[in-house]
């Protein structure tokens, strides 16, 4: 599957940093109108070390659950991974646009359409739920216990 690379914006903050040094996440996210709520959620998730390593290793690609009716065929973790790679495989102090991830989120949840302010917790919950459902390891719903009502 073709993954779109996040757009890298030139930083006005020029530093005397070797071009071969990776940022290790010390970068910025451009504010696309009113997206600080999304940027805060992305920065939060991207600095969770076990999750960050899991995504950057690309192990998740083989765990995408394309049959989960609650998921989106892997689109959420793939878009998040593209942005995460941009954040961690770039020059320190660069600025990246979360445009592709934002567009996907707006497409999947109309609540995020437009440039209205939202709560960072809402964006965080949506991202985590989207990633969870796309990577859910349960391929078929297990049959549960049959519950009987009071009539037997």
Give structural notes.
This protein is mainly α. The protein is built from 5 helices and 3 strands, in the order ββαααβαα. The chain has helices spanning 36-46, 49-56, 75-88, 99-108, 120-134; strands spanning 8-9, 28-29, 95-96. Strands 1-3-2 form a 3-stranded mixed β-sheet, covered by helices on one side. α1 packs across α5 (120-134), α3 (75-88) runs antiparallel to α4 and α3 (75-88) packs across α5. The longest helix has 15 residues, at 120-134. Residues 1-21 have low confidence and may be disordered.
Can you give me a brief rundown of this structure?
The chain has 152 residues and is mainly α. It is built from five helices and three strands, in the order ββαααβαα. It is globular, with a radius of gyration of 18 Å.
* Helix and strand pattern: EEHHHEHH
| Large-scale geometry | globular
Kindly state the number of beta strands.
Answer: 3
Roughly what percent helix? 25-40%
Overall average pLDDT: 82
How big is the Rg? Answer: 18 Å
Give the CA-CA distance, first to last residue: 51 Å
